[in-house]
Amino acid sequence: MSTLSQWRLRAAFADRLSKMYGREVPAYTTLVDVSREVNEDVLRAQGADAERLGSISRVTAERHGAIRVGTPRELQQVGRVFAALGMHPVGFYDLREAATSAVPVVSTAFRPVEREELARNPFRVFTSMLTPADPRFFDPDLRARLEAFLAGRELFPPELLALADRAAAERELPQEDAERFLQLAVEAFELSPEPVDRSWYRALERISAVAADIGGVRSTHINHLTPRVLDIDELYRRMTERGIEMIDTIQGPPAWRGPDVLLRQTSFRALAEPRAMRTPDGSVISGALRVRFGEVEARGIALTREGRARYDNLLGLVDERSAQSPGEARADIARTVWEQHMPDTEQELAAQGLAYFTYRVAADRPRDGSPPPNSVSELVRQGRVRAEPIVYEDFLPRSAAGIFQSNLGSEGTRDNEQQGAAYDADWLSGAVGRDVLDPYALYEQQQNRSLAQVASELGHDGALLRPVPPLHPQG
C-alpha cells in the first residue's frame, strides 16, 4: 500500500486549504493570480537573482495561514494536527503589547524547521490563542462566561486527532488514511454555517473584534491565507488597479535600494461575509461579519539578534520622525532612515553580524597556494567562499498586529490601569505540550553547520570562521 510522507501531507493540506479558502473568499484567488503574474514578471526581468531567496517553484507554492483558538486545550490539539505535517511551534508573539487597539492574543507559528523540509514545502500557520485571564480586556464575569463557552465546544474531532497522532509517530500515513486525515483537517478550518449567537458575539465584539471571532462562535476557521510575492509594491499597485480595496500601508521594512530583510506584508480589507445570526428570541436572521481577509508577503533575509535590535531601533526612529513631520509620508521617512543606518549590501550585513547566511567553498576560488585567511568576511571578499542569505521564515509582532488592526471595524476597549496577565514562551510551551523553538537558534544552527563544512574543506578550525563581532547599532 502506498503511503504519504509528512512533507507530502503538508503540501497536500496547504493546497487543499488554499482551494477551499478561494471558494469561500474569491478575492483570495485574485490575490494568488496577481502574485503569480508579478512573480513571473520579476523572474523574467531579474533572472537568477529573483531566486536568491528561494526557487520560483518554492515561492509559487508558498503559503502561510492564520488561525485563532481559545484555550490551551485547543492550542494543544491544533499542535497535534500540525505535528502530523512535520510542523513545529516556533517563536512567541505577544500581540497584546504590539497593538494599540484591543488584540488580546498570544501567538506562535507552526512550521517546518529543517532546511530540506522548508525547501520541499515551507507551509506555516500563525496560530493565536485568546487570553481571557487578562483583566485589561475581560472583567471577571465576562471571563467566566467566555471560559465556560470555550470549554463547551469541540474544534477537532477525535478521529482527526487520532490520525494526526499516528502520522506524527510514523511520519507518514497510508494513502486511504491520508485522504481521510486531509478531508477532516480541511473541514476543521472551513467557515461553519451554524448560526452565530448575535448577542454573545456583540458582547465580545465590544471588547475586541478578534475576541469575538475566536470566542463568539462554536468553531474555528482559516482567518487568512498568504501567498508570497517577489515585488509587493507592484502587487499592491496591481490589486488596487483591479478594484480590490487594500489596507493603507505595507507593514514591515520600507522599499529601498538595499537588501530585503525580514518580512513585508499587506492585505486586502476584510470583507463583509453573510452569516446566519440567532437572535435572543431564538429566530435566525441574515447578518454579516467582517473577519477574514487576504494577506500577501515578501520575505527577506533573516536578521541576527543584533540585526533585529537595529531594525527595532530604526522603527522607533521612524516613529519619532513621523511624529515630528506629520505632513511627510511615512514610507519616505522610513526609506531615508534605512539608507542612513542600515548596510546596503549583503556583504556588509554579513560583515557586521547583522544577518544570517550559509557559506560554501567556491568551486572557482583562487588557488595560488597561499593560506586562506581566518576571517569569513575576508574569505568572502577574496572569492574563496560564497555567502548565501538565509530566508526569514518567521513573523513580526508589530506587523501582524498592524494587519489585524487594519482589518478591525473598531479599536475595542482595554483598561490599561489593570496589570496584564503574564504569558511567555515557557508558558506557551506548556500550553501546546511541545517546546516553542527559538527562531534565532534555528538560523544560527543552519549558519554554523555551513561554517563547519567550510572549515573542514579548507582545513581550518571552525571557531576561526565565524563572522566578525557586530558593530554597535548606529543612530
UniProtKB/TrEMBL annotation:
Pfam families cross-referenced by the UniProt entry: HGLS (PF07063)
EC numbers: 1.13.11.93
Record's keyword terms, sorted: Dioxygenase, Iron, Oxidoreductase
Cofactor(s) recorded in Swiss-Prot or TrEMBL: Fe(2+)
Domain of life of the source: Bacteria
CDD domains linked to this entry: VOC_YdcJ_like (cd16348)
InterPro entries in alphabetical order: HGLS, YdcJ_bac-like
Similarity remark: Belongs to the 2-oxoadipate dioxygenase/decarboxylase family.
Protein name (record): 2-oxoadipate dioxygenase/decarboxylase
Organism of this sequence: Streptomyces smyrnaeus
